[in-house]
Design goal:
The complex is a heterodimer of chains A (about 375) and B (about 240). Chain A has two domains: about 1-40 and about 170-365, no CATH class; about 45-150, abc type-2 transporter like domain (abc type-2 transporter like fold), CATH 3.40.1710. Helices cover about 65% and strands about 5% of the residues of chain A. Chain A contains 14 helices and four strands. Chain A has helices at about 1-15, 20-40, 60-70, 80-90, 105-110, 125-150, 175-205, 210-215, 220-250, 260-280, 285-300, 315-320, 325-340, 345-365, and strands spanning about 45-55, 75-80, 95-100, 115-120. With about 240 residues, chain B is of the alpha/beta class. Helices cover about 35% and strands about 25% of the residues of chain B. Chain B has nine helices and ten strands. In chain B, the strands form two sheets. Chain B has a six-stranded mixed sheet, with helices on both faces. In chain B, strands 2-1-4-5 form a four-stranded antiparallel sheet, with helices on one face. In chain B, strand 9 and strand 10 form a beta hairpin. The interface between A and B is medium-sized, with 25 and 30 residues.
Chain lengths: ~375, ~240
């Protein structure tokens, strides 16, 4: 194990001399944590709406006013031509059209009912869905107001109403950032663990320095540990920087303990380092390594539950999330930071991630050859 | 005992036979020149003997150890300098020497004295703490040779060590090779400079993956009735069907 000391010495010297690595270590976490939680937000705001009012009555005006006074909608056009509104949708200036028919108010008074027409630009499914739902709930609200005003309330209400009171556990204000930040911390640790370590080893292949190492009596495990330990430490450093930024910028202090976070991260890093090592045994140029890591990372991230809930994925994709280390870590991070889960609660995740670590590293070591 | 002993060694990459059934011996303390045109298979043969590449068939022992079963023992007994400069350019001269000294299991005091000796011998005292990146090619090659010799190996493999190096440095480099040989180290060297071939105790000439001729420079010149190794090399190498890769 004396050799390991010389290898670590060499690796750390190189890391501290490489301005690119240091920049990646500090700039990437800052940028990702400052930009992503604000930008990658699922709350849909500023839905652009066109109101086509054929009625021009006090009621229709009032409905229009009610819609535009919320923060969800921006009024693009208030017109009396459906064709013109549709043109705006075609030109991507509007997402939604609400058409109020000519005898909206009269029907409402005479026949006690009236209808509205809603046309949605469904190119962006999420926005269409949410915009439509917001609009429906505003109209329902409007409907309810009218009922209260126009119908004389009997002493006992004929229509039973159920009111629902709710509380949001773990994230009382349903703050999207509190949900996103732990996930982004996971991304950071993963990138350092898999990307950087794979690129580092492959760059030694490219430069030919690895050949010089392979011609020495160095043992496989010495070389692998010499590469893994520095990146394992770097991963934990990036995690610490990330946790600091989440506290300083978002005021997020984990409900659970830091010890739990670090214990799980340490185990997780071993398994993603194994992935990086495995990638490096397959790739012979940095380009190949980068493309391969990129391909894996995109799949792992999109199917990890970072942006979309894994529960709503099709069964085959849910099966995939069971073999996706990132999805375990994201779940665990959210559990510890939001709920305050301890080691006992995350034990099954820990076993799974340790198993990945064993499998990935075994594959990597098996596939690593000093002699080609 | 022979320093290197090779019988029927072959390396195939798919249907391409890079090294075709070569057989030769190298004696201890000998400077053995391994000549051949580009693509003749010299580097592949050398990489097999260093345990970097797995032979497809054939037998070989290096420093008395079997190439298949005792590759790691071979690695303790050999030094290797590849065609491409492969020390760490982002480490200093001292740090490179320390790293390889450490990997070959030298003690820290030994590494220190070796480093001082080596740096003095190379006249690099004032550059010892600068990054290798900033060294000119000639000095890099001399440094790489010294690092390959750091653990006093029984055999040293040099793959075109003087490629692209100026004549003065080339002469100095060969002085280093002679010194190593006089201390008993076997030197296995490939080169494209035919004047260097004349310095070798024995040379072999590879054409299209096979060994076409082998012997002392004098023997070969006599046999092929040429005035120099260069003339003789051209006679043989022109027969090659394989083109430069």
């Amino acid at each position: 194990m004396k050799v390991l000391r010389f290898l670590l010495e060499k690796e750390f010297r190189q890391i501290f001399r490489d301005p690119a690595i240091l920049r990646i270590l500090f700039v990437v976490p800052v940028m990702q944590l400052l930009i992503l939680p604000f930008a990658a937000d699922y709350e849909v705001k500023n839905v652009k709406i066109c109101i086509v009012d054929y009625d021009r009555s006090p009621s229709s005006q009032r409905l229009a006013h009610k819609i535009t006074s919320t923060e969800y909608f921006t009024l693009v056009d208030f017109t009396d031509s459906y064709d013109q509104a549709l043109k705006r949708v075609e030109n991507n200036q509007a997402d939604l059209i609400l058409q109020i028919p000519a005898d909206f108010e009269r029907n409402l008074i005479r026949e006690n009912s009236s209808s509205l027409f809603m046309a949605i630009n469904a190119v962006n499914g999420v926005k269409a869905n949410l915009g439509g739902a917001y609009l429906r709930s505003i109209i329902q609200d409007f409907n309810h107001e009218l009922q209260l005003e126009w119908i004389q309330l009997p002493r006992q209400n004929i229509q039973p109403t159920i009111s629902v009171a709710g509380i949001n556990w773990y994230n009382p204000l349903m703050n999207y950032k509190i949900f996103m930040v732990p996930g982004i911390l996971v991304l950071l640790v993963t990138i350092v663990g898999s990307f950087l370590s794979a690129l580092n080893i492959v760059s030694e292949k490219e430069k030919g320095t690895l050949e010089q190492i392979n011609v020495t009596p160095i043992r496989k495990h010495e070389f692998i540990l010499g590469k893994m330990i520095p990146f394992w430490i770097l991963g934990l450093v990036v995690l610490s920087i990330g946790l600091f930024i989440s506290w300083a910028v978002y005021d997020i202090v984990p409900v659970g303990s830091f010890v739990t976070i670090y214990i799980f991260s340490a185990i997780y890093l071993i398994s993603v380092l194994g992935l990086g090592l495995l990638v490096s045994t397959f790739a012979s140029t940095q380009q190949q390594a980068l493309l391969l890591s990129f391909f894996l990372l995109i799949i792992f991230v999109l199917l990890s539950g970072l942006f979309t809930s894994t529960d709503s994925m099709p069964p085959w994709a849910q099966l995939f999330t069971r073999v996706n280390p990132i999805s375990y870590f994201i779940e665990v991070m959210r559990m510890i930071i939001l709920k305050g889960s301890g080691l006992y609660e995350i034990r099954s995740h820990m076993y799974s991630i340790a198993l990945f670590g064993v499998i990935l590293n075994a594959l990597a070591i098996w596939n690593y050859r000093k002699r080609s | 005992m022979k320093s290197i002993s090779v019988q029927h060694l072959t390396k195939r990459f798919g249907s391409f036979v890079a090294v075709d059934n070569i057989t030769f011996d190298v004696n201890p303390g000998e400077i053995f020149g391994f000549l051949g045109a580009n693509g003749a298979g010299k580097t592949t043969a050398m990489r097999m003997l260093c345990g970097l590449s797995m032979p497809s068939s054939g037998e070989a022992t290096v420093a008395g150890f079997d190439l298949y079963k005792e590759a790691e023992k071979i690695k303790r007994s050999i030094g290797y300098m590849s065609q491409k400069f492969s020390l760490y350019e982002d480490l200093t001269i001292r740090e490179n020497i320390r790293l390889y000294g450490g990997i070959y299991g030298l003690s820290i005091p030994t590494i220190k004295t070796k480093t001082d000796q080596l740096v003095t011998a190379l006249k690099l005292e004032d550059k010892a703490n600068t990054l290798v990146r900033s060294l000119p090619l000639g000095w890099r090659q001399k440094l790489a040779f010294s690092v390959a010799m750091i653990h006093d190996p029984k055999i040293v493999f040099l793959d075109e060590p003087t490629g692209g190096v100026d004549p003065i440095t080339r002469r100095e480099f060969w002085t280093m090779i002679f010194e190593a040989a006089s201390r008993g180290t076997t030197v296995f060297v490939t080169t494209h400079y035919m004047d260097e071939a004349e310095y070798c105790n024995r040379v072999s000439i590879m054409v299209d993956g096979g060994i076409e001729a082998m012997g002392t420079p004098e023997e070969l010149k006599k046999k092929y009735t040429s005035n120099s190794i260069a003339e003789m090399f051209l006679q043989l190498a022109r027969k090659a069907k394989r083109s430069d890769d």
